[in-house]
Design brief:
6-stranded parallel β-sheet, 27% strand, 17 strands
């Protein structure tokens, strides 16, 4: 076993603290990565505090990992020592079901193996990127371009692919009017990516103070959702809505903004099941859909696309010992727009 160190949540609702553990030895198809940066996702908080249930403790969060390969297995063909690589939200899947064979490992019928707070095929808990190193099968590892600042690339492994995937699946782009609900870690990436595809983008936010940022990110319009007149003026104008909000909110406020045959895609997960008025769907043949990250092939496509178009996340780089304060700031929406841990501080 390989000695490792990081920060872990010892139990739900207990602050994260230094933690020593072990990684598996590098197998024939594995790569070992020295972690340079790890993004901080809101789902890290949900799981570290057992808000979704089933959390495994002690837990080392982190699934937005960028680093340098320090060792490769003797049968590895896709990577070499010294290369920059990334790891996203999962590190394995069954590899045999129809979803896996289609390159949609995130929808694996057996269940993908999460990068953290999961169990590998031997039943051992997985530990994430709030640590100094990780060992991953080469087939679940991603190539990272060195054209872009690595701290800004790290959140692409979750926030980037979570918004890129629905944009591609529904073909959002030139000639479409796309609404983005919420301007946070996911929302700011949805704006950047939809704009880059040629869509006319409207940010829908409860916070008037975010208008300037929305415009800086490339949004064409800004709607304050608490302003009834602005919402009425926007009704029936959008082809798509990417709903990134994970806080409790009312879907029925947003569905009327869609045109005939419009689609609202959910990528945020509210804590309780929201209600949906049937007539908001029926009367304009609207659709309510969901989307979950992307497979390895699509995630690599997204990383290559972002490198080509100079797209990264807006980040605030922090030291690892600031992680508990960062969690509290995230709960107050006090970050523009993603915390990223500099693992040299470990």
């Amino acid at each position: 076993m390989i000695p490792a160190k990081g920060y872990a949540a010892p139990q739900a609702n207990i602050p994260l603290e230094p933690f020593k553990f072990e990684r598996r030895e590098v197998g024939p198809h594995d790569v070992q990565i020295e972690i340079l940066y790890c993004g901080v996702c809101h789902s890290d908080i949900h799981q570290a505090r057992d808000e979704w249930g089933g959390s495994i403790f002690p837990m080392v969060p982190g699934h937005e990992i960028v680093g340098t390969i320090t060792k490769v297995g003797d049968q590895v063909t896709k990577f070499k020592v010294g290369e920059t690589a990334g790891v996203g939200c999962f590190v394995d899947s069954c590899r045999h079901c129809s979803s896996c064979l289609a390159g949609l490992e995130q929808y694996c019928d057996v269940g993908m193996v999460a990068t953290y707070n999961g169990r590998d095929k031997e039943g051992n808990p997985t530990y994430g990127g709030y640590s100094n190193q990780v060992v991953v099968d080469e087939n679940y590892t991603l190539h990272i371009s060195e054209k872009l600042p690595l701290a800004g690339v790290a959140p692409l492994l979750c926030a980037g692919i979570t918004t890129y995937s629905p944009i591609m699946e529904w073909g959002m782009g030139k000639g479409h009017k796309v609404g983005v609900v919420g301007l946070g870690g996911l929302g700011h990436m949805a704006v950047k990516l939809a704009v880059s595809k040629g869509a006319e983008v409207t940010v829908l936010s409860t916070s008037p103070s975010k208008k300037a940022d929305a415009e800086r990110l490339g949004a064409h319009h800004f709607v304050v959702t608490r302003d009834a007149d602005q919402m009425t003026a926007t009704a029936g104008t959008l082809d798509f809505i990417i709903n990134t909000i994970s806080a409790q909110h009312e879907y029925n406020d947003y569905l009327p903004l869609l045109k005939l045959d419009g689609t609202m895609v959910l990528v945020g997960v509210p804590p309780a099941a929201p209600s949906v008025a049937a007539f908001n769907l029926i009367m304009k043949r609207r659709r309510l859909a969901g989307s979950l990250i992307g497979g390895i092939k699509e995630t690599q496509e997204m990383l290559d696309y972002c490198a080509e178009h100079n797209i990264v996340s807006d980040v605030e780089v922090i030291n690892i010992d600031y992680i508990n304060e960062a969690y509290e700031r995230m709960l107050k929406n006090d970050v523009r727009y993603r915390f990223v841990i500099d693992m040299a501080s470990l």
